[in-house]
């Protein structure tokens, strides 16, 4: 499952819940999962960018 698909699933679950006393725990779980998936996606993008940058540097050094 992709990050986007996971976020979509968590977001759909959140939209089906009405935040209230009896559903607060479930709301918090899905809200936390949604935000966690966003954070992971952001971190993965940063790591991919960093890997690309390091790969380019290594290629430059190898060609010198």
Helical content stands at: over 70%
Strand content: under 5%
Shape: rod-shaped
Q: Any idea how many domains?
A: 1
Compute the separation of the termini in Å.
41 Å
Main beta sheet: strand number and arrangement?
A: none
Give the H and E element order.
Answer: HH
Q: For the residues shown, what is the average pLDDT?
A: 83
Rg, Cα atoms, Å: 19 Å
How many helices does DSSP assign? 2
Features:
64 residues, mainly alpha, 2 helices, rod-shaped
Describe, in plain words, how this protein is organized in 3D.
- The protein has one domain (3-63).
- The chain has 2 helices and no strands.
- The protein has helices at residues 3-16, 24-63.
Brief summary:
This protein has helices at about 5-15, 25-64. Helix 1 packs antiparallel against helix 2.
